[in-house]
Write a structure and sequence with these properties.
The complex is a heterodimer of chains A (326) and B (261).
Chain A (H helix, E strand, L loop, with lengths): L1 H7 L2 H22 L5 H26 L7 H19 L2 H26 L4 H21 L1 H4 L14 H19 L2 H11 L1 H6 L4 H27 L9 H14 L4 H18 L6 H15 L12 H16 L1
Helix pairs in contact in A: 2-8, 3-8, 3-11, 3-12, 3-13, 4-5, 4-6, 4-11, 5-11, 8-11, 9-11, 12-13
Chain B lengths: L1 E12 L2 E12 L3 E5 L6 H8 L7 E8 L2 E4 L5 H7 L1 E3 L12 H8 L8 H6 L2 H20 L15 H14 L4 E5 L7 H18 L2 E5 L3 H7 L2 E6 L2 E6 L1 H5 L2 H8 L1 H4 L2
Helix pairs in contact in B: 3-6
The chains are: A mainly alpha (326), B alpha/beta (261).
Bound molecules: adenosine-5'-diphosphate (ADP) and magnesium ion.
């Protein structure tokens, strides 16, 4: 009986909830006492949005093994959809509607693009997804009636604050982590490991590749919506292929196939570039040099394909407590 | 009663006839060998049977519950669901995943919870994952791999990797098992254990087995019937005793010495 309860109420879930609540409260308090001032809040928003982007791209590239260079394209669909809806209606409900509609549209495009292109392998897929995101960008430039063309949209109602950032970031990471820890997620991972063996074991590899791609696009759409509603200015150039590369850098830096690696990398890289703002002109060079240095010393990324788990902290705790006994 | 019938199966790669008008018939519960020199087309036959290549010509018919089912042109995952499972000549495990995950993934097609349940770990997820875990562990303990369930597949010794590949194929719950050189790279002790294992799983899981193997002592010992392939064509289909004394087979493959072994 006790065993039953144990499996129903997994202690790890409780620890996860507690640590999330703690993280939320600490940041909320720091914001209200202005330790995280309005300048640092921008870094905070960037971190959250990048976490969503990186974790969802990791699902596609790191876990399912499909090299995509089009993530910024999906992000822009979410950003524009949410911006256009909230600019028209201006209510909180329209924001929530905008987020989900943006995500759904991004997912729809992801599905339609994924179906034919995911038959391609490696470099070809990368080029196809790159092309797709460029097409999306050009469409936004040319739809001036609703997107205001290359100049983009400004004065987008700002609904996103720390609470929304937290809810969506934690939600996306939680759901993706759960997915990967399920039979469907393992089916995706098996494609990365060996697509031929995977299909020989009865897994419809096309289906799961398209699924991961669509799901990743959905999350990128959410990130885009967060972006437009927080920074209240968007234009097509923000979502060019440089943005896709930025996201890929976070994923590779954190470790292909590590959720916690992506989260860690998003935080560290944002802090690094905030710190480098002080060196205005040479900051991009420094950023690049640091990245190269890190990749030389840890080519597999910060975490490789490993995860930071609660079990690890238990082990660490045991190490310390056993040391004390000695 | 036949369970699988292959008629005039042909595969050409450009000008090369890798498999040419091959007829194979497997009776339910049989253990049949498929031998022949390197490059004879044995692995290609497996790739045709399991849907990795579409045949240039020919038919593959599976008899299931009294019904005929044509397998040629179907995709590998569908053929796996129809009950044909295979191992690979050059081991193809999910190397960076645990032993347990290798087997669990092969059981995925029978998992009965949807995406929503996997997103939120609803009760159906918990129930089905438990079943999946128990079934995987049962299979692993049969294959004596249960104590290594958390080991990465790449870290297993060679012989155990071969066993894990067989375990993974069994996890798909097949009625026909295709083994591509399972004893390759094994020492005699391991080969002896493998031959017991093959016979044992055939009884236990009520399998029909088609076995490609170069180790003639193994093939002659456990197979009831042997097909010999040479240049893509079947040159003999007989019991091990008759194969040993078949002139054409000796010329093409066995050589003189094996005939008195
Ligand atoms: N995908 C392929 N493309 C071209 N030729 C192939 C391919 N697969 C196998 N072959 C050729 O078909 C012949 C049979 O190969 P194979 O079936 O692997 O032989 P075996 O398993 O009996 O050693 C060989 O000559 C091989 O080079
Ligand atoms: Mg072969």
């Amino acid at each position: 009986m006790r065993n039953r309860l144990k499996t129903l109420i997994n202690p790890n879930i409780i620890i996860r909830i507690i640590s999330l609540a703690l993280a939320f409260t600490v940041v909320q308090v720091l914001i209200s006492v202005n330790v995280i001032n309005s300048y640092l809040q921008i870094t905070l928003a960037t971190i959250c949005i990048n976490i969503i982007l990186a974790v969802s791209l990791n699902l596609i590239t790191g876990f399912t093994g499909q090299f995509s260079l089009g993530h910024a394209g999906f992000m822009s669909i979410g950003a524009y959809t949410c911006a256009i809806i909230t600019m028209r209606y201006g209510t909180l409900w329209s924001f929530i509607l905008g987020v989900f509609l943006g995500a759904l549209l991004a997912a729809l495009v992801g599905f339609l693009v994924g179906l034919p292109t995911l038959r391609l392998q490696g470099d070809y897929l990368a080029i196809a997804t790159l092309g797709m995101s460029e097409i999306i960008r050009v469409v936004f430039v040319n739809l001036d009636v609703i997107t205001n063309g290359a100049a983009g949209l400004s004065d987008i109602p700002q609904f996103v604050n720390w609470i929304w950032l937290f809810v969506f970031t934690a939600g996306v990471v939680w759901v993706i982590a759960n997915f990967l820890n399920s039979s469907h997620g393992r089916a995706c991972i098996s494609i990365r490991e060996d697509e031929i063996a995977s299909s020989a074991m009865g897994i419809n590899t096309t289906r799961y590749k398209v699924m991961a791609f669509t799901f990743g696009a959905f999350c990128a759409g959410i990130a885009g919506a967060m972006y437009s509603s927080y920074f209240y200015v968007i234009k097509p150039d923000l979502f060019g292929f440089l943005k896709s590369i930025d996201i890929l850098v976070i994923v590779v830096f954190g470790g292909l196939g590590s959720i916690t690696g992506s989260v860690l990398a998003a935080v560290l890289l944002a802090i690094m570039s905030t710190f480098l703002q002080a060196f205005s002109e040479i900051r991009m060079i420094l950023y690049a040099v640091l990245l190269v240095a890190i990749m030389i010393f840890r080519p597999q990324g910060l975490m490789g394909s490993k995860e930071i788990t609660i079990g690890m902290f238990n082990k660490l705790g045991n190490m310390f407590s056993s040391k004390k006994e000695v | 009663m036949p369970i699988l019938k292959v008629e005039k199966l042909t595969k050409s790669f450009g000008g090369l006839m890798a498999v040419h008008n091959v007829d194979i018939e497997l009776e339910e519960g049989e253990l049949v060998g498929l031998i022949g020199p390197n490059g004879a087309g044995k692995t290609t036959v497996f790739n045709l049977l399991t849907g990795f290549y579409p045949p240039t010509k020919g038919e593959i018919i599976l008899y299931k519950n009294g019904k005929e089912k044509h397998l040629q042109g179907l995709k590998p995952d569908i053929i796996c669901k129809e009950g044909l499972a295979r191992t690979f000549q050059n081991i193809r495990l999910f190397k960076d995943l645990s032993v347990l995950d290798n087997v669990r993934i092969a059981m995925h097609k029978n998992v009965k919870y949807g995406l929503v349940s996997s997103f939120f770990h609803l009760p159906s997820y918990i129930r089905e994952e438990r079943k999946l875990y128990d079934a995987s562990m049962e299979l692993l303990s049969i294959m004596k791999l249960d104590h290594k369930k958390d080991e990465f597949a790449r870290n297993l010794p060679y012989g155990e990797q071969r066993c894990l590949e067989i375990a993974r194929a069994l996890a798909t719950n097949p009625s026909i098992l295709l083994l591509d050189e399972p004893a390759a790279g094994m020492n005699p002790a391991e080969t002896a254990m493998l031959s017991d294992l093959i016979c044992w799983i055939r009884e236990k899981f009520k399998l029909t087995i088609l076995l490609i193997e170069h180790d003639m002592s193994l093939v002659m010992k456990i197979c009831e019937r042997i097909y010999v392939l040479d240049y893509g064509m079947v040159i003999a289909n007989e019991t091990p005793e008759l194969i040993k004394s078949n002139k054409r087979v000796i010329e093409a493959y066995l050589g003189e010495d094996v005939s008195d072994a």
